[in-house]
Amino acid sequence: MHLLAAAPGAVDDGSEAIDLGQTPGDIVVLTSADTEIAALSAVHGARSDADPNTPSLRLANTLRLGHNMSVDLYVETVVQHAKLVVCRLLGGRGYWTYGVDEIAAACRAANIPVAFLPGDDQPDAELASLSTLPAGASHRLWQYLVHGGIANADQFLAFAANTIGHTTEWREPAPLMRAGLYWTGRGEITRDALQALWIADAPVAGIVFYRALMQAANLAPVDALIHALREKGLNPLPVYAASLKDPGRLRDRLRGLRCSAPGRHPQHHRLCPVRPRRRDRPRPVRRNRCPGAAGGLRRVERGGLARGSKRAVGARYRHERRAARSGRAHPVPRGLL
Fold first, then answer.
1. How far is CA 315 from the centre of its chain?
2. Helix H or strand E segment including 225
3. Confidence class of residue 86 from pLDDT cuts 50, 70 and 90?
4. C-beta contacts of 117-121 below 8 A and 24+ residues apart
5. Residue 245 carries which DSSP code?
6. pLDDT over threshold 70, residue 69
7. Which residue of 41, 241, 251, 333 is 20 to 30 Å from 9, comparing CA positions?
8. Average pLDDT of the residues in 303-311
9. Any bridge partners for residue 5, and if so which?
10. Is 122 helix (H, G, I), strand (E, B) or coil?
């Protein structure tokens, strides 16, 4: 059997069998979302540094296991030695039929709990019927991944560790806000907690980034900006948002936040100005405007154009065209009669 070594960061179409080169681990998570792999990898690194006894974790993208031989090898070398297997599939069983069937058979034969989870936020009865993990536990793992974010990724691993007998505290899944504040090492943070971290008498510099970075825990660039701004004596204001086309949510999250640092001018604290974009502002109502009348017609009414001149004839023609398009009769200015 010919196997190709897997190249990190590459996408394989399944035409060749590849070996991911992974060793067995306690918890195995397979998904087609690179954001989930990045988030779980980052969180597991932090948990391992804090607790060396943290269960080992193996992550794999199902897109890398398109060939049947790749699936067979991965099941033989990794899945069969795991204590818990979680497989999240976008598109259901039909998206990865051979992989689902082989993993389900191997886990049942070795009495390994396995959870097949939908890749979106809609339940899948067929995947649920293939899972051997209790329905409540499978649903909780699924909700951690549906909501996303650093906190949910951390609780996903905490709950998975409890499932295999490693006692640790865990919390229920928590929805990630569509817009909010962030701080290095603390994840989502409140306004008061953020201001408590600011430097007194320092100006504020805003950092706006997409919510997708929070979901994937891909926050190294944001953390670098926060660190650099603090070194320059500035107070960073990191704000994440699902879309910049929704200024209302940003205003709600920033309402009550003071632009000046505490201790500088307590009597002059002001709210951070978050002005709506130009197209979101109400347009002024124009009054006393004649429908269909152009500037040339108004000049004719004032006697600004000579009767029979080219400009007057052109103005009359434009007036008739506008009246025909609008379907309404407009009086012809006396200068065009």
1. 54
2. helix 220-231
3. very high
4. 117/86, 117/87, 117/88, 117/89, 117/141, 117/142, 117/145, 118/88, 118/89, 118/90, 118/92, 118/142, 119/31, 119/32, 119/33, 119/88, 119/89, 119/90, 119/91, 120/90, 120/146, 121/146
5. T
6. yes
7. 241
8. 55
9. 19
10. coil
Write out the H or E segment, with its range, that includes residue 116: strand 114-118
Is pLDDT above 50 for 123?
yes
How far lies 230's CA from each of 61, 138, 223, 266, in Å? 37, 42, 11, 22
Instruction: Please choose, from the candidates 141, 134, 83, 140, the residue with its C-alpha nearest in 3D space to the C-alpha of residue 107.
Output: 83
Q: Assign residue 168 a region: left if phi > 0, alpha if psi is -120 to 50, beta otherwise? A: beta
Joined together, the tokens standing for residue 184 give 């290095």
pLDDT band at 291 (very low <50, low <70, confident <90, very high): very low
What's the pLDDT score for residue 212?
84
Q: Write out the two tokens for 69.
A: 């031989």
| Residue 248 token pair | 């209302």
Tokens of 8: 């990190």
Residue with tokens 């920033």, as numbered in its chain: 254
Per-residue pLDDT, 25: 95
Report yes or no: 239 and 254 within 8 Å, Cβ to Cβ: yes
Q: Do 27 and 13 meet the contact criterion of CB atoms below 8 Å apart?
A: no
- Distance separating alpha carbons of residues 174 and 184, to the nearest angstrom: 19
Q: 13 and 42 in contact (C-beta within 8 Å)? A: no
Determine what percent of the chain is predicted with pLDDT higher than 90. 46
Inter-residue contact 127 to 118 (CB < 8 Å): yes
Per DSSP, the three-state class of 88 is strand
What tokens were used for 137? 């536990």
> What are the tokens at 213?
């970075």
